[in-house]
Fold this protein.
Amino acid sequence: MLQSKSFVRKTKQGKVLKVVREHYLRDDINCGASICKVCEPAASAAARLSSNGSTVLLVIDTNVVLNQIDLLENPAIDNVIVLAIVLEEVKNKNLSVYNRLRALCSKTLRNFFVFSNEHHKETFVKAMVGESPNDRNDRAIRVATSWYQRHLGGSTQVLLITNDKENKRKAIDEGISAETVETFVKSLGQPNLLDLVVRPNSEDVGMEDVEDLRPSKRKVIYSEHKPLSEITFGLQRGIYHQGKLRVNRYNPFEAYVGSESIGDEIIIHGRSNMNRAFDGDVVVVELLPKEQWNEGNSLSIADDEDEEEEDVHLVPNSADDAPRNVDVIQNSGRNVDSVSCRPSGRVVGIIKRNWQSYCGSLEPMPMPAGNGGIAHALFVSKDRRIPKIRIQTRQLGNLLDKRIVVAVDTWDRLSRYPSGHYVVLIENDINSRPFSAQVLACLPPIPWSVSSEDLMNPIRQDLRDLRVFSVDPPGCRDIDDALHCISLPNGNFEVGVHIADVTNFVYPGTPLDDEASQRGTSVYLVERRIDMLPKPLTEDICSLRSDVERLAFSVIWEMTPEAEIMSTRYTKSVIKSCAAMSYVEAQARMDDSRLMDSVTTDLRNMNTLAKIMRHRRIERGALTLASAEVKFQIDTETHDPLDIGMYQIREANQMIEEFMLAANVSVAEKILKHFPLFSILRRHPSPTKEMLEPLLRTAAAVGLDLDVSSSKALADSLDRAVGDDPYFNKLIRILATRCMTQAVYFCSGDLTPPEFHHYGLASPLYTHFTSPIRRYADVIVHRLLAAALGIYKLPPIFQDRPQLTSISDNLNYRHRNAQMASRASVELHTLIYFRKRPTDTEARIVKIRTNGFIVFVPKYGIEGPVYLTPRGEKGGDWFVDEEHQKVKKMDGSISYSVLQVVRIHMEVVEPQPNRPKLQLTLI
């Protein structure tokens, strides 16, 4: 059946056009229910809903998806009908939630079915005269729910889930079963699920459906955010300024907004002036009058025990009368040179929220429990930049003293804290659970070996005669890369990078693939590894161990002695590694002039090529940065740390890194050529001027003139940054690293080619290909490369750009969480190590504050605050010279400057029960 849809559209020239489009309706669209008799036999192939008579089929409206996505992702919520009209509306309102919903609909282990209600002749509805788009969509949802009830003939219950009071009322009047989210979740008999429910606004549902939502007669705490029309007007006329809010990691009551409109950072002092903005939010700021600017940008180091209540002031009912110079840390007794006076402001609006899931722990609140055993608690994030979050939970006793993950729901101006809900009891949202039986069933039988079919397969080249070897960290069992280097008769070299062929065992759409996609990456902790894939794959079947035949995906170049690439080829292969060396072993072989065996010769040749490649890359502008990576020696029995120190980088490390980088660049070029819209790449955005400002101020204070106009200019400047202190240059590079943006995965169709650039590597293209055992991004890239070579067809998911965007977002999220978990593991083991080992050592000052400074301890890779005044005092008789990055006594008798060497005492203290911390004290 053919229908016509018409709508009006305004052109750029201001003309109004009526657009008429053909809209085809069908009566053979599958309902997705396995019990359905009408849709058979097609239903057997497409069914996703297990309507077995006792199961309820759920139809969810748009607001339920937008507000309750954490709940929907819980396995307890199943047999969900996602109407196409809902999917489209969610896509228009929140792309992130849309991608999460699409991921649910594509999972093989979840029953979420997308029904094309807009193209079914019995569920399509025309807009009525005077009906708003929202009302029309609600009516379409009710019509589709009613059709499902009739279509299935009462064989199973169909339930509309909505928190819209009017939509629910109309549904019941029309004979449709309808419930609110909370009422339905209560009926499941799983009280813990209620913690995932985002509390609706009281106007959305009847108060009988909501527990503990009646607000008390609280006074207004924060200023009302300006309406969009006023913000737009103010931005155009320079009254307001827009930028991203960055909260100081050592003082959560101080933030900065980089503003292009005034060419400087605007300082935001105190939570009241932050006005409910989170770190990373894109905000609109109004400058305070100059006489109210807080001089300098260096407030006191905020102690862990500082109370946020200091910062909260009642805001008058009129936003125009709101206080404009509120500061959590009072300025009495704090002196700063007038030369460093910088703009201060307050947030008047939020353009884009950066709310994420946060890891931390609960503080019980002295409040009476609500109905149904509800307890109120304050969540304290591990990230000090995040304010405390108020949650309601029915399992307070179970959650206390544990790491949990909480998501933010709302923050109204009557509340001192944002409100949120508990998501999961997994530190950093890391899935450390054992692999399920369905996942393990996807693995080949053990023991596994290369078969004759593998060797005879025309897509796979037999490279077992090559002298292939691997070089990895000591004790590495998940070896996913190996190399070879042979001399050619023409004087060139053939160099190969061989990567474990993980996709030979991980097929798209299987439970194993779904699990790897969700985990995203392996997580490396101090004493253990949380695998992305089961150990039989990571440590045996795929691991390129020595003296066993293994399947690989190879990138092979012909290179001149000057490391110029003459040709590149890609092939699936079979290899047999002759040696699995550690970095220390490989370095020792290269350094021992008595060794002249073939493997050592290959290592030296590769190292020579790598040095040339590295030099050429740096000449192009690649940055050689540094990080405070820590290495622990662990007791094999107690798992306690025996020693701690900075990780040492050798030439062997750099050699392997160089060829892995080259392989990743070559593969990026290949897949993008074949799939310009569907390639998963990795980019590193250039740092902004505001991000580099702390580095420039520090450099200027010690007499360095850093050129940050390009990565090449910055790299050259860092090379020239040398001093008498042998550690000086590394410290400057560490400070530069901290000014960088985060490298991220992305789908090539989402950005333009200039945005693909990787700033740190000075490369126009980059991806991850070389570690598929531990990164799902590499698994995707292996599939893209195989399709580019014509080996396999591209899986259907690669034709769905929003789904690829969702996968990229998840990879970035999982990568960040893995980094956080790794750092938390280092922090924990650092505490364990120093608990019984109070130590005096040298440290370098890296940041000046008004009541102390932040130091970095090179020997241990540790950073932390050192106080010059007793805790609780805000500066005393010290003042800050912002221009020269010094903190001085008022009488001039003592001063400390940035990058100065000081001696400190380190010991573990426990100011609060079960919250130990490493305390650094100036000697």
The CA atoms of residues 524 and 822 lie 6 Å apart. The radius of gyration is 30 Å. Residues 41-46, 202-216, 307-340, 367-371 have pLDDT under 50 and may be disordered. The first helix runs from residue 43 to 46.
